[in-house]
TrEMBL record:
Natural source organism: Eleusine coracana subsp. coracana
Protein name: non-specific serine/threonine protein kinase
Top-level division of the source organism's lineage: Eukaryota
Compartment(s) where it occurs, according to its Swiss-Prot or TrEMBL record: Membrane
Sorted UniProt keywords: ATP-binding, Glycoprotein, Kinase, Leucine-rich repeat, Membrane, Nucleotide-binding, Receptor, Repeat, Serine/threonine-protein kinase, Transferase, Transmembrane, Transmembrane helix
One GO cellular component term noted in the UniProt record for this chain: membrane
Record keyword Ligase present: no
Residue intervals passing through the bilayer: none
Domain Protein kinase residues, every copy: 1-219
InterPro entries: Kinase-like_dom_sf, LRR_Rcpt-Like_S/T_Kinase, Prot_kinase_dom, Ser/Thr_kinase_AS
Family matches, as Pfam families: Pkinase
Enzymatic reactions: L-seryl-[protein] + ATP = O-phospho-L-seryl-[protein] + ADP + H(+); L-threonyl-[protein] + ATP = O-phospho-L-threonyl-[protein] + ADP + H(+)
PROSITE patterns: PROTEIN_KINASE_DOM (PS50011), PROTEIN_KINASE_ST (PS00108)
Amino acid sequence: MKNLVLLQGYCKVGNDRLLIYSYMENGSLDYWLHERADSGALLDWRKRLRIALGSARGLAYLHLSCDPHILHRDIKSSNILLDENFEAHLADFGLARLICAYETHVTTDVVGTLGYIPPEYGQSPVATYKGDVYSFGIVLLELLTGRRPVDMCRPKGSRDVVSWVLQMKAEGRETEVFHPSIHGKENENQLIRVLEIACLCVTSAPKSRPTSQQLVAWLEEISDD
């Protein structure tokens, strides 16, 4: 599957264990969004939309095509690696869990990364497909806004990207959340549609979130416009 980082081999020497993966020339999405000062110019909207679609395809493959299915449990921008063509590849399966096709969840320790962990994980030690979808929604918000999931350097009330975006939408100011480098009249319709998808992903009610398969279909439709 081209949207997963491929395992090329492994090495076992004494007590040392190494996994060898394909080299990703452009590093992580987190690096491009949050570390590079020129990311706005180099990571245009077309690239960001392709990264979103590739990541969704990788997630859908884990959830639906693998046998047994896989919950990633740590979807985040630093675990989305980019090849020389900026094609997205999901990486880091250290927290992943296998799940039988007839099951909807696994009981496990609550793990993940601050800002990406679904709210329901704080109430129950159960990991679900919809938890991965929530984390994917955070990545979509990062692609749209250029903001980190949580940024304590920002003013109170806008530190958490989900709360800030939902508040801006409630005030009818959703177009103001888009990063200036990607916001233009020619792609505003696509931006708004992806924002709606992101908001569906991060809704507090897991049952209201889309499936990864729905995400792929919606993002493909937007990409084809």
